Amino acid sequence: MTRKEKPPSYPKRQQFTDSDGWTHISRSHKPTRINNSFPPEHKLKPAEIPQGQTLLDLQNSHTHYLEQWLPSPYHQNLRTLLLNDLPSSLRSRERIDRCIVLGLGSLSNGRRSSWWELVFLESVLELLFLSASSERETSSDWELKIYVQDPVFNDLDVAFFKSLGFIVLSDPEAFDYISPSTFLFAPHLEAEVYVRALKKAKPGLCVGTDLGECSDRYVSYPNIS
What we know:
The protein is of the alpha/beta class. It is built from 6 helices and 7 strands; from the N terminus they run E-E-H-H-E-H-E-H-E-E-H-E-H. A 5-stranded parallel sheet has the order 5-4-3-6-7, with helices on one face. The protein has a two-stranded antiparallel ribbon with strand order 1-2. Helix 4 links the parallel strand 4 and strand 5. The longest helix is centred in the middle third of the chain and has 19 residues.
């Protein structure tokens, strides 16, 4: 019998609202200190495509991870969090019209964390914005556009995301798309990339690293404020 892959487990979540009105849902571990200086810039390159890999291979991998994720208790916990525990003000389609996905990584290299993040994201989008059973009412012309950006995306990654209906942007184009009507999905993104992403505007909703660590340390940093 083939053993099913077990989705990663996470520490207990905490929810709080800061003085600026941002609602944060984070893990209960102690935040990591961030160095006050930026590391030297380095140019990331598209990941190498494994020999013989095809678009169908990525689509089959996508199906595999969805089949592991959807029946799991982790997916059910996510449903409970988003539909019952998340403040209704954050579940309004009227305030979100686009999703920006940063730093997902190349899917062609077989990195499991990238696949788990993708199926997690798809569930979030379905539960909050796309479900026909949603309690929210919107105009018939409402549309959620989904943009993805990562300098390591290769041609196969781009073809796969386009097959999902996602719009692939070249670094750093996505940063100009962030606005108060944006859902920013950027888990495990480096702090200095967050600074670049949030330079012009804050998103209406964000899933990612503790933004307090980034804003407290870097918002007034020379040449970026």
